[in-house]
Amino acid sequence: MNYVKTLGAALLASVAFVSAAAACEVTLRSSDTHPEGYPTVVAVQKMGEMLEERTGGKLCIEVFHSAQLGQEKDTIEQTQFGVIDMNRVSLGPFNNIIEETQVPSLPFIFRSTDHMHRVMDGPVGQQILDAFSDHDLVGLAFYDGGSRSFYNSQRPIRSIEDLAGMKFRVMQSDIFVDMVSALGANATPMPYGEVYSSIQTGVIDGAENNWPSYDSSGHFEVAQYYTLNQHLIVPEVLVMSKTSFDKLSAEEQDIVRQAARDSVPVMRDLWQEREKVSEQRVRDAGVEIITDIDKTPFIEAMVPVYQKYVTSPKLQQMVADIQATE
Ligand code: GTR
Questions:
Q1: Quick count: other Cβ atoms within 10 Å of Cβ 122?
Q2: Which residues are bridge partners to 28 per DSSP?
Q3: In whole angstroms, what is the distance from residue 306 CA to residue 106 CA?
Q4: 60, 97 Cβ separation under 8 angstroms
Q5: How many Å lie between the centroid of ligand 1 and the Cα of residue 90?
Q6: Is there an atom of ligand 1 within 6 Å of 152 CB?
Q7: Atom 6 (ligand 1): residue with closest C-alpha?
Q8: Which residue has the least CA distance to atom 2 on ligand 1?
Q9: Is the CB of 87 under 6 A from ligand 1?
Q10: How far apart are CA 208 and CA 98, in angstroms?
Q11: For 76-104, what is each residue's pLDDT tens digit?
Q12: CATH classification number, 148-233+279-324, choose in 3.50.50.60, 3.20.20.70, 3.40.50.2000, 3.40.190.170
């Protein structure tokens, strides 16, 4: 009896689900490397709810989480081609394509998350969003990516000297390769999805990321030393394929832009909560966390990286604008 009741309820639920999805004329497919429940995934799902409500059920979003549509670099290309409608990615993998994205990806460019928010919510952030339009994309909003620090499987890193000769995975961006080299270590750019097994098999010694990614990827299981040197605060971005965007009416385009903006505070709240939860989970797992680290030598070592990348007057102005932002 109970079984029949449960079955009936399940059937009803699936019918309801099908009809709700069917009511949407357009379901935008959005990619994310992170799993269900991760702040970026939930924020885009919330944006989808806003969209559905504000378009009377015409536009919806389906988030393909857990890299179902591929690793970030490949999904970016597919979004440019219009195969994927939307994408939530780090700015890192855009660095080699869109020079403006290099600036917020520079090591130690932001003094804090609050500073990053003020910059990305202001004219510099708008300038970066606008830059996507020359690359078949529409920049919609920035999300948080926390601060990134090194973790490895070999030993606790307590100073810059301890990094010497170690091999770290970085996102596929030249800046990060040069950043790691300038610290005296070796960089291997590779997709996020290959990091776990590469650490496990000793192809690399470690990687670098924020608390939620270190936790949700399970990297802490294979790299048990985490040094909070916080060399990067790289914002994440939500972009839409220009091909998909152009199919919408002007009114719908405004609704999409606004819903993306409205998903930002939702994301920031989720992020703050998740950082604490992830930190606790990782600490409970017995990872060695090194907090007592002098950042000054790390900051000083970045001079050649700035010299190499901040060369055009445009990027120099952007760096100056960020530094002048309170
Ligand atoms: C995460 C970020 C992802 C991805 C990943 C990586 O923090 O949210 O978009 O860039 O890092 O290291 O590849």
A1: 13
A2: 61
A3: 7
A4: no
A5: 6
A6: no
A7: 192
A8: 90
A9: no
A10: 23
A11: 999 999 999 999 999 999 999 999 999 99
A12: 3.40.190.170
- Whether the CB of 236 sits within 6 Å of ligand 1: yes
Q: Are 97 and 59 in contact (CB under 8 A)?
A: no
| Rounded distance between C-alpha atoms, residue 207 and residue 214, angstroms | 9
Calculate how far, in angstroms, residue 121's C-alpha sits from the geometric centre of ligand 1. Answer: 21
Dig out the tokens for 221 from the structure.
Answer: 């299981």
CA-closest candidate to residue 174, choices 270, 281, 92: 92
224 C-beta closer than 6 A to ligand 1: no
244-266 pLDDT tens trace: 999 999 999 999 999 999 999 99
Q: Please give the model's pTM, rounded to 2 decimal places.
A: 0.93
Q: How far is the CA of 213 from the centre of ligand 1 (A)?
A: 7
Find the farthest-apart pair of alpha carbons in the chain and give their distance in angstroms, rounded. 74
- Per-residue pLDDT at 22: 55
- Ligand 1 neighbourhood includes 147 CB (under 6 angstroms): no
Q: Which pair of structure tokens corresponds to residue 279?
A: 């930190």
For the chain, the distance separating the N- and C-terminal CA atoms, rounded to the nearest angstrom, is: 65
Domain ranges of the chain: 148-233+279-324
- The closest residue, in CA terms, to atom 4 on ligand 1 is 90
Which tokens hold the place of 228? 């909070």
